[in-house]
Amino acid sequence: MRAGRFITLEGIEGAGKSTVARIVCDWLEARSIPVRLTREPGGTPLAERVRRVVLERGDEGLSPVTETLLMFSARGIHVENLIRPSLARGEWVVCDRFTDATRAYQGSGRGVDAQWIEGLASAVHRDLVPDCTLLLDLPPTVGLARARRRSGLAADRFEAEAEAFFHKVRAGYLELARREPHRIRVIDAAAELVGVERQVVHVLEGLLEP
Ligand code: T5A
Question: I need a labelling partner for 83 at 20 to 30 A (CA). Which of 10, 35, 130, 170 fits?
Answer without folding.
Answer: 170
